[in-house]
């Protein structure tokens, strides 16, 4: 039999559990991707960030942060055109990927497997390796073609998590809405946090 004993080091296992790929595409809601990066930094999660060209435009349009300041929040950043980056291969262990915000264009590419950038290729890798893929798809309303692609993605194992605000927390600021959603995304990825408020039941009971 070729080869020797296979040894799984603790280091490799730990890295697999703590390494998250984050994609920021050109849908509205750049602040959500930024907040996720900030949260991961605080929680000690290694992040690999890819921002699409349109994502850079929405960051400039919607936030007070420069693209380079956003990139500085990540442990590693990759150019969207760098299809040779580590996260383009299934042999590079990660816990999965969150695309937030996720545009219809990126979502559609991921649904078909015809990926033209590192962002969509890295998402495709998560699907083929059966890793968690969370897509915070932001568009409204959806047409039937969008809904068919979303169904296809859900059937392939992706979690479709549109950034829909939770009103039961009575948010007073945009940051509260952003935090609630960010905490929810982290929980979906299996990362416990106290950024999102938990629902503890109706006040005064049912
Ligand atoms: C300010 C701004 C807001 C946008 N908002 C959305 C959106 O909410 N959802 C969406 O699917 N596309 C939105 N778009 C269009 C996408 O950016 C465009 O389809 C782009 O080609 C997406 O490319 P990407 O998936 O590579 O990021 C927006 C564009 C701009 C400039």
TrEMBL record:
Keyword Transferase attributed: yes
Keywords: Flavoprotein, FMN, Prenyltransferase, Transferase
Residues engaged in binding FMN: 26-28, 52, 103-106, 138
UniProt-recorded Gene Ontology molecular function terms: carboxy-lyase activity; flavin prenyltransferase activity
Gene3D superfamilies per record: Flavin prenyltransferase-like (3.40.50.1950)
EC number: 2.5.1.129
Domain annotation Flavoprotein: ranges: 19-180
Binding-site positions, dimethylallyl phosphate: 168
Catalytic activity: dimethylallyl phosphate + FMNH2 = prenylated FMNH2 + phosphate
Listed InterPro entries: Flavin_trans-like, Flavoprotein, UbiX-like
Family: Belongs to the UbiX/PAD1 family.
Function of the protein: Flavin prenyltransferase that catalyzes the synthesis of the prenylated FMN cofactor (prenyl-FMN) for 4-hydroxy-3-polyprenylbenzoic acid decarboxylase UbiD. The prenyltransferase is metal-independent and links a dimethylallyl moiety from dimethylallyl monophosphate (DMAP) to the flavin N5 and C6 atoms of FMN.
Matches recorded under PANTHER family: FLAVIN PRENYLTRANSFERASE, FLAVIN PRENYLTRANSFERASE PAD1, MITOCHONDRIAL
Protein name per Swiss-Prot or TrEMBL: Flavin prenyltransferase UbiX
Organism of derivation: Sneathiella chungangensis
């Amino acid at each position: 039999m070729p080869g020797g004993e296979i040894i799984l080091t603790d280091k490799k296992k730990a890295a697999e559990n703590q390494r998250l790929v984050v994609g920021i595409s050109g849908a509205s809601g750049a602040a959500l991707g930024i907040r996720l990066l900030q949260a991961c930094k605080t929680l000690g999660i290694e992040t690999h960030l890819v921002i699409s060209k349109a994502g850079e435009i929405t960051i400039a349009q919607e936030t007070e942060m420069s693209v380079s300041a956003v990139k500085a929040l990540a442990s590693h950043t990759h150019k969207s055109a760098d299809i040779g980056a580590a996260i383009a291969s299934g042999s590079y262990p990660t816990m999965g990927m969150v695309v937030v915000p996720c545009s219809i264009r990126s979502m559609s590419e991921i649904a078909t497997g015809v990926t033209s950038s590192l962002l969509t290729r890295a998402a495709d890798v998560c699907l083929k390796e059966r890793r968690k893929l969370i897509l915070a798809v932001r568009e409204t309303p959806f047409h039937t073609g969008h809904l068919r692609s979303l169904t296809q993605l859900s059937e392939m194992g992706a979690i479709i998590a549109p950034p829909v605000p939770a009103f039961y927390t009575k948010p007073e600021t945009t940051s509260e809405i952003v935090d609630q959603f960010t905490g929810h995304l982290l929980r979906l990825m299996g990362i416990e946090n106290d950024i999102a408020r938990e629902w503890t039941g109706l006040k005064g009971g049912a």
